[in-house]
Amino acid sequence: MKNYITTLALIGALAPGLAMAATASGTGTASAKIVEPVTVTQTQGLNFGTVTNEAGTVSISLSGGERSSTGDNLVTDGNTPSLGQINITGPAGQPISINIPTNAEISASGAGLTVNLSSTDRGSKTLDSEGSFTIYVGGSMNPEGWTAGTYTGSYPITINY
Is the C or the N end of the chain the one with fewer CB within 10 Å? Predict the structure, then answer.
């Protein structure tokens, strides 16, 4: 009987070890792709040149950057009109999304005026094999009644990638 009690005691002492849960192990992985950032640089600003404040819509064409007007308000004085030029650079072949507003505010001496913007590209594009893409910005405005002055302003260009 004594052996029987000793055996039961040993089994009872070992029982908690026999009730252990099963375990498994493995490994996880982590990774990252690091790329150079995409940059946006204006190499030339949109310039309507010099105009009078008479009736007529002044435009800078996307095809060749030619200036025109529906009125008689163009002045030739050495202030050369030009398309805006925006260069985008980054990793070759990088998909991008270009966001440029359709208008911008320009101002002089507190007077703010709206300029309509047009661009050669908006939406989904891809950087070329050199990692670059160029956007041209044209526009139109009607200076009738504007106060004389030099008007300037900016507009956001957002590139998502």
Answer: N
